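Revision sheet: structure tokens.
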Amino acid sequence: METVNCLIIGGGPAGYTAAIYASRADLSPVLYEGIQPGGQLTTTTDIENYPGFENGISGQQLMDTMKAQAVRLGADLRTGAVTEADLSQRPFKVVIDGSKEVYAKTLIIATGATAKYLGLPSEIKYRGLGVSACATCDGFFYRKKTVAVVGGGDTACEEATYLAGLCKKVYMIVRRDVLRASEAMQERVRNTDNIEILWNCNTQEVLGDEYGVTGARLLRKDGEVFDIAVDGFFLAIGHHPNSELFNQWVAVDSEGYIVTDGKTSKTNVEGVFAAGDVQDPIYRQAITAAASGCRAALDAEKFLKMQ
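Predicted:
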């Protein structure tokens, strides 16, 4: 049986930052990277809004740099994913890959949130080559170009209006004949000249070539099939927080995001902290995830000192 001071679950910007701060606090953190080391950022080509990189940096390179920094400072980074957890008492028990048991005096959950996709093979093929689930992250690369946004809720309207400020034209692909967004968001869309809503449409296929996305094939409710030419294809149909393994003990909201106490990373379970997109339904940015990883490590350090 292995017992550690600080166990971090998740290898994205929140997890790596937590490992950096926990290492400097002499907590000897152990971090399990999960099934996607580096998190969702590893599927992003270039990042131009992360401070400190004048000419931008690739998502993979940014995560590799964070990981290397955590290792240099003494964090124990391991491959493996949590398959079971028991947070009913301290030390908390987690099972890695169905076999290895690790007990933790403090636990930082940084498992992220997964963007919802349509499930099309072509969508997967062009992910990072024109298919994106984050307009704020990738919209800059489509300045003066034509893009499509899938969805009809508040998030889709926000993404569409954001992109409309950068792009020549924005199509909204909406499967119903109405938007689900709030009236205020609908009004913003209606008042944006370069947004065109394609009602009663579902995406059959994302079209592209060796260089990336070139268009989308749509099926209208009346049976009409037609293509649109776009340079970027943005999904705005929601995110799914990766909290299932822990929500038997930690409080979550109606969408499954872990609830934290005010500006802290504290959950309702003493000694368990949450950081990054798994507890952030609003911003979902690398910089905010990293900041919350810092808070989680500082909160864990303070908790251990008070024991």
